[in-house]
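Hi, here's the filled form for the chain we discussed.

Project: internal
Contact: R.S.
Residues: 338
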Amino acid sequence: MPAVNKPQTSLALIPEPAVVASQSEGNMGQPRQPSSLQGLLRFAMEATKTEDAPHDSVFQPLDEERKRFLENALKSMTIDVVEVLQKQIQTLRKIENLKPGDDTTEFVEAIDTILEYVDNIDIANDFHKIGGFTILYPCLKCSNAKVRAGGCELLAVLCQNNTYCQKIVLDNEFIPMLLSLIEKDEDTIVAVKAIYALSGIVRENSEGLNQLLHYNGLSILLNTLKRNNEKFTIKATFLLSSLCRSSPEIKDHLINLGFVSTLISLISMERLTSHEHVLSLLVCLVENNVKAISECKNPSLKLKEVLQRYLASIRSKEECQEEEEYCKRLLHILNSEC
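And the returned structure, exactly as it came back:
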C-alpha cells in the first residue's frame, strides 16, 4: 500500500455517557456532570457564575483553580482516537499467530472498538493512514468465524460512502476474497457480512462494479439466492436492486444469467419477509425491459398465477402494502405489454 503521512491527532467524545454524580450530602446541589461538549460548556457557565452576580453580568476571566478544574474535566471526556486505533491494530496483528481453539475474545473486542469510530469518514481515512488496513486480510482469513465476520463488518463500515477507502480496497484485490467467503464460507453470518462488505465497496462505484463482473460476482450472488436463506436473500437482493438503479446496464447481465426465473421461483414458495425484497428486484428488472417482460410471460413460470396467489395470501395485511404494490405493478406490466 502507498506510504502516507501520519494524520493529525483526532479527538472524540468517549462513547459511554458520563456517570451522573450522586446527589449525596457531599455533592448536594452540584450540577449534573456533562456528557458532551455542549454540556461541558453549560457546566463551565454554571461553574463561573457567582451567587450574587446579576443575570446580565458579563463573564469574568477564570481563576486558576476553576481553569484547572475545566481542563481536567475536558481531558477526562476526550480521548486520542488515533492512539486508541493504534492499540487495537497492534492487538489484531497477533491474529496470524492464532491457533484453532485459542481464545479470540481480545480480537473480537478490538474489532468492536475500531467499529465505534470508523463510521466517521475522516477517522476511517486516518485508520488507513496509520496502517490499519494491514489487519484486514488476516481477519478475513482467520480460522475463527467471529473474527472473519468482524473483519467483513469492519471492511463494510470503512468503505460505506467513502471513495478513499473504496479505492484502497479495490487496488488491493479484496473483491475476490469477499466473493470466496460468500460462496464457500460455512458460517452463515460470515457470508452475510461479506455481502454487506461487498455492497459497501461496489455500490455507486464503477470500478467496484467492473471488478464484481470480472470475478463472476453476479453468478455467485445468483447461487446465493438459490439457497433460499432469508438473510442471504435480503442482503443480495438489496445490493442487486441498488446496482440496477445506479447502473441500469447491469439488468441485461442479470437477465442473461437467469435471475428472473430464480426470483419467480422464490416468491412461489411459502411467503417470507425477504420476499418484499425479491419482488422489488423483480420489478426493477422488468420495468422498461422487453427481454425481461418476455421471459416473465414464459408459460412454464406461471407468473400471473403466482402473483394472484401471492396477493390473495397477503390481502388485508397492513404490513404487506409494499408487496401488494409490487405484485400489482408486475401484473399491470404483464397485462399491458405485448
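Let me know if anything looks off before we file it.
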